[in-house]
Amino acid sequence: xPITLTxxxxxxVTNFLAKRGKGVGLRLGVRTTGCSGLAYKLEYADALNPEDxxxxxxxxxxxxxxxxxxxIDGTELDFAREGLNEGFKFNNPNVKDECGCGESFNV
Length: 107
Fold this sequence. Notes:
It contains 2 helices and 9 strands, in the order βαββββαββββ. The chain is of the alpha/beta class and 107 residues long. The radius of gyration is 14 Å and the shape is globular. 17% of the residues lie in helices and 45% in strands. The strands form 3 sheets. A 4-stranded mixed β-sheet has the order 3-2-5-4. A 3-stranded mixed β-sheet has the order 1-6-7.
């Protein structure tokens, strides 16, 4: 299944890449950490690696390494503002459990 962005998330990424003046898209992955085992890794991609998988969503290229894909396959990334806080929210259908602080998950 593809990795997708909501329109809000795509607009935020597009605006940020324009301000940055460089970048080919958004890199999404996972790393081992936290009390539940995995955490999301999110950064702007300046280049593509030969093994990278790419998904286009609302005009934004989402870049994923093959080792992370099984953990985030089918994820939708949203950008939300709640009061004074704003940030990305991960709607990942693979998550079985999250830690109490919300920083890590397991599948």
